[in-house]
Amino acid sequence: MNHDNNSIPPPRKLITRVVKAGTVFTEAISLVVKEEKITMQQFNVLRILRGRKGKPASLQDVSKDMLHSNSNTTRVVDKLVAKELAERIQCKNDRRQIEITITDSGLKLLARLDEKVDHRERELVEALSEKEIKLLIETLSKLS
Prior knowledge:
- This protein is mainly alpha-helical.
- It has one domain (5-141): Orthogonal Bundle (Arc Repressor Mutant, subunit A).
- 60% of the residues lie in helices and 8% in strands.
- The protein is built from six helices and three strands; from the N terminus they run H-H-E-H-H-E-E-H-H.
- The protein has helices spanning 10-34, 40-51, 59-65, 73-82, 104-124, 130-141, and strands spanning 57-58, 86-90, 98-102.
- Strands 1-3-2 form a three-stranded antiparallel β-sheet.
- The protein is elongated, with a radius of gyration of 18 Å.
């Protein structure tokens, strides 16, 4: 089905642009984190764990906060544990439950990536003014 640009319904045009931009952003950041031999999902989990400021997280907590919720959270955490970037600890309140926390190595890895990721993110949105960025955040927040 061949549409000229004016016949594409605005909602479809918006969704297509958002998805395309999301793909560009994800691929660009993925290349940065790949330098540290981790995936975007692993990077996301590490940032979630760091954001908890030392407080352990259940697997469900991590999964809920992931950018791309998927059933692979256990596998992602397994790989981080194997790389000694995260660790599993037994929950104090419920010995049957396992919680996850970031290790010092995980924190150091994120510290190395912070500046590179921040720089790449700034590059990705450099065509927008600060005002446009804030407006876009506000507008997109209404959709999710």
